[in-house]
Amino acid sequence: MNNRDPRFKQGVFKPKHPQKFIGKFAIYRSSFELRFMRWADSNPNVLEWSSEQVIVPYVSPIDGRAHRYYVDNFVVIREGTVVKKYLVEIKPFQQTQPPRPSKRKKPATVLYEQTQWIINQAKWASAREFAKKKNVEFIILTEKELFVR
Prior knowledge:
This protein is an alpha/beta fold. The protein has helices at residues 31-42, 107-133, 143-146; strands at 11-13, 21-22, 26-28, 46-51, 55-59, 66-70, 73-79, 82-90, 137-141.
């Protein structure tokens, strides 16, 4: 992993239950993603899960070009007597809300946040459409869901 950002907890997660994991590597790019992977690996109701295995095509409104969105995780969960499939994106809550300009933020920061918001909206819209066609649910988890006790 050459693109590591030292500000974030990043690495490769080694599942304790590899029979449930789909793929070669479980790559996490944040402590939130690592928390989700630990949960998926240890939860007996999770039948299968993967990391960045599902690729959703989308068109960026910024450059008008086609891109590939690697959804953070795919998970198959037994919920009572029903088995459900989810595409799971993991983001800090703040990044799931429209950015707010502030006099304390540099103009470049405001522009970056707005650009990321626009791109993420395009990714998530494409993921919802993709999921619907595959009979899967697309969800976004934040620290509000990941850190519930």
